[in-house]
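hi got a favour to ask and not much time before my train. below you get a single protein, a line of residues and a line of whole numbers that encode the local backbone shape. could you go over both lines and see whether the tokens make sense for that sequence. a few lines back from you is plenty, here it is:
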Amino acid sequence: MRVTKELRATAYHEAGHAVAAWHEHLPIRAVSVIADDDTLGRVHHPPSPASFRPDIDAGPRARTRIEAHAIAFLAGTHAERLVVQRVSDASWSEDRRRAGALLSYLCGSAEEEGAYWNLMNIRARGLMKQDQLRPALDALAAALLEHRRLSGRRARQIILEALGLTELDVTLRRIAAGQKVAS
């Protein structure tokens, strides 16, 4: 199948979301560059646990989760910009809307929300510019161009292989950083 400029941009866009989600310790169910009625591609996440209620409790755990999702939403556009000069306005506005909707739970005013959004956008852009993550971004985009859809497990495996890591490496790094590790 012929790889168009639009498909390549979409593969990097979705790979950016997925690599950022992996970096932020968010689970991924699947990654796809198969267009549907609303999008050119998508990263599927499992539903949030019922205990995640930022409308009721925006404490430290909720804040961390919201920031992680916001960074993952915004990273796609920055990854896409690495390979093409122009970014789809539709995907950028939807990613921006989704990040803003989550961040609004943490803010008391539109001004604060705008500043918080800018901070998350800067973090997402910085994440996608990290040289050490570029091999994962390239490998995942290439796999998406070849297969069009990847399971979350396969996407994670591609990321780890591209970075020369194992699951044990990731677990040990999380423990060393004092982060929660799934049992």
